[in-house]
Amino acid sequence: MIQMTATQTEFSVYYSGRELLRHSLKNPLLYLGVGKETIAMHHGNFHISDEIVERVPFAAFSAEQTENGVVVRFFKDHHACSFTLELREENGRLEASGRCDDHRYNRLWLSLFAEANEHIYGLGEQYSAFDLRGKNYPIFTMEQGVGRNKGTLTTFLADQLDGGGGDYWTTYYPEATFVSSRLYYVHLHGYGYTEVDLSHEDHHCLHVWQDQIRFTVSADETYPALLGDLTALVGRQPPLPEWMTSGVILGMQGGSDTCRKKLDRMLAADTAVAAVWTQDWVGKRVTSFGKRLQWDWRWNRELYPTLLEDIRENEERGVRWMGYINPYLVEGGILFDEAQKQDFFVKRKDGTDYLADFGEFDCGFVDLTNPAACTWLKRVIKDNMISLGLKGWMVDFGEYLPTDCLVHSGQDAVGAHNEWPTLWAKLNYEALEESGMLGKIAFFTRSGATGTQKYSPLMFSGDQFVDFSADDGLPSVINAALSLGMTGFGMMTFDIGGYTALFGKFRTKELLLRGCEFAAFTPVMRTHEGNRPDENTQFDADDETVAFFSRFSRVHRALSPCLSELVRENSEAGLPAMRPLFLHYPSDERAYTEPYEYLLGRDVLVAPVVEEGVNTRTLYLPDDRWIHLWSGREYVGGDVTVSAPIGAPPVFYRADGETAKMMAQLREIR
Questions:
Q1: CA 74 to chain centroid
Q2: Helices 371-381 and 334-341, interaxial angle, to 10°?
Q3: β-bridge partners, 76
Q4: First to last CA, the chain
Q5: CA gap 436, 430 in Å, rounded
Q6: What is the CA radius of gyration of the chain?
Q7: Considering the entire predicted model, what is its pTM?
Q8: What is the CATH number of the domain that holds 606?
Q9: Using one digit for the tens of pLDDT, what is the confidence trace for 519-532?
């Protein structure tokens, strides 16, 4: 499966019939260099600069076809320094590893062959685009940023306020894994700083901050088979409990009385409620950013005096209770004092505990590379959350680890920073596993990295801005879900109506309702009050909004058999629930580029309304027999324009699909 053609001045390597490497003396595929980075953090926003003091081509080469692959040695300056790249077949995949014999170098650039019309997808959770060709993507976990387009006023104001504006590439979950429209994937191993540069017409450049590289390539004849192999490599998600796909998870806060009244109102309106989610079960604090939480992971009995009774009573009504946790502990809290006494915090280089400002309060980082610290924090989860009766929680943050710290394992801080989200997901997974609660309790994570797939059953899309902006608002959720799916993470939820309200902009009723109807056609339908709940429109704002949520929660519940099957397919075969059109229509060129629409499984096509103030939507249907959900009208593909008032998002199902009968019944839900 690995073949090479070579002359004295150039060579090419092919894998499974696809050209993978192309090198010549004039256009070398390998450069090495020396760089000096500067990384500054402020509230989870990292500003990275790299001074390249040397970058040299390794153009001369000797190449050998071996029994199991190819070995190439690249040289610089008359063989004074060499780099050996070995490509071998192993377990039906191409395994590549390369190393320089001069460790003075700490920067490496290696190019993969590319075709001009090739499309690239994945790289974790990407918000600004789905087809990633044309730009360079740093792989470094951080806050997504308030605003992710340097040309917008929102991003400008966030940058001016505290450097909190993002860019097209900033994300909680970056991963150096991508899928090509040439039906192969590339997965880079390790957690060091990497850039995947897709801006060139004839090559993709892998840039790493070290003198060695290791990556895996695999190819197949279909996208489902390719994703199956990818997830076999990086891990497949644990299945969600069935109750999570059976209605809306209502995010509410404010204490026992407030939550009881909100829930009773929604149930009285015949709302299908899967769970109540109270992030402030630990108490609250108010900052200039908005309402925050008391980061001391214990039941706040003053705010929730009847929590135990509420959990039990609602279990009898089929409603679960969920909470919140993150891996940081606020200074002055009881758990902070316990962790500090046992020396469980990440350190500064002078040996003192590393405390960081999280927005008007300082916290310590529990060292997730310290086995004793992990055992202690798992005990906190078991005693304070599982024993309380919580059936799930948000596993927030994970992307703040400073790069000038010392961790228990002794590993490089940049690599530890990128691995931290996976360690955080792993800890929560193990707390459930050790308690015998896998498949009964579930959590949803914000940040991720390679390997998060095998620990986290659900990702949430982070802190979208409360608007319809392409890079940071409602439309970005679709890109995020599809990119995650093409990175082997197939289950995602989002904050209906967005989270971040700043600069005089708050969640409108229109945005909330558009988010609600969209979320009904995703695996998990979930609300969040946002950082400014008093100003944002909420699900119980008025009788019309309550009735709207009730209706679409029952739509989601009616979809539960379909969603449960998608959970199974994701867990067993690596097929995401929300899929790009080309996954099932690979010969359709339009399927690779159409924005803001997706397949929910094999048979349902969803094209959410992601523009403000519109009541129609023009979209593309692949060549098939499609039934418009709300009108029952049949379409056969191509560009179509349909009426899309609030309450009737563009949804189609295949006339010959297995879910056709079930989908037809949805239009009767009122």
A1: 37
A2: 160
A3: 81
A4: 56
A5: 10
A6: 25
A7: 0.97
A8: 2.60.40.1180
A9: 999 999 999 999 99
Q: Which amino acid is at 452?
A: T
Assigned domain for 345 exists: no
Cβ neighbours for 137, distance < 8 A, ≥ 6 positions apart = 123, 126, 169, 174, 195, 196, 197, 198
Where does 571-633 show beta strands of DSSP type E?
Answer: 578-579, 598-600, 604-606, 616-621, 626-628
1 vs 537: CA distance, rounded Å:
57
Decide if 343 is inside a domain: no
117 by DSSP, 3-state: which? coil
List the strands of the sheet with 60-66, edge to edge: 60-66, 69-76, 81-90, 93-100, 212-219, 184-188, 174-180, 120-124
* Three-state SS annotation for 134-192: CCEEEECCCCCCCCCCCCCHHHHHHHHHHCCCCCCCCCCCEEEEEEECCCEEEEECCCC
Whether 358 is covered by a domain: the verdict is no
Q: What is the mean pLDDT of residues 456-483?
A: 97
Kind and range of the H or E run holding 265: helix 256-268
Closest CA to 484 of 464, 503, 456: 456
Q: Looking at the domain assignment, is residue 353 inside a domain?
A: no
- Residue 567 near residue 240 (C-beta atoms within 8 A): yes
CA angle (521, 125, 356) in 5-degree steps: 120
How big is the chain, counted in residues? Answer: 670
Q: What is the pLDDT of residues 19-46, one digit of tens each?
A: 999 999 999 999 999 999 999 998 889 9
In this structure, what token pair is assigned to residue 302?
A: 């003053």
Give the per-residue pLDDT at 288: 77
Question: pLDDT digit string (tens) for 570-600?
Answer: 999 999 999 999 999 999 999 999 999 999 9
Burial per residue of 519-542, b for 16 or more beta-carbon CB atoms within 10 angstroms, e otherwise: bbbbbbbbbbbbbbbeebbbbbee
The pLDDT assigned to 276 comes to 98
Mean pLDDT of the chain: 97
What the block records as the tokens of 582 is 């080309």
Residues that are catalytic: 396, 399, 463
**CA dihedral over 173, 175, 181, 185, signed as positive or negative:** negative
- Report whether pLDDT(287) > 90: no
Q: Which of 227, 183, 178 is nearest to 204 (CA)?
A: 178
Nearest to 531 by CA among 236, 253, 249, 118: 253
**DSSP bridge partners of 87:** 70, 96
Q: What is the mean pLDDT of residues 480-505?
A: 97
Q: Are residues 264 and 302 in the same domain?
A: yes
Residue type, 500: T
Residue-range definition of the domain harbouring residue 166:
2-234
Residue type, 584: H
Using the predicted structure, report yes or no on whether residue 291 has a pLDDT greater than 80: no
Amino acid at 50: D
Q: Looking at the structure, do residues 381 and 471 belong to the same domain, yes or no?
A: yes
Examine the pLDDT at 495 and tell me if it is beyond 80.
Answer: yes
Which residues, at least 6 apart from 207, have a Cβ–Cβ distance to it below 8 Å? 107, 108, 109, 194, 195, 196, 197
Both structure tokens of 644:
């899309």
- The answer to whether 324 touches 335, Cβ cutoff 8 Å, is no
Total tally of structural domains belonging to the chain: 3
- 561 and 585 both lie in a single domain: no
Q: Cα–chain-centroid distance for residue 60?
A: 41
CATH code at position 565: 3.20.20.80
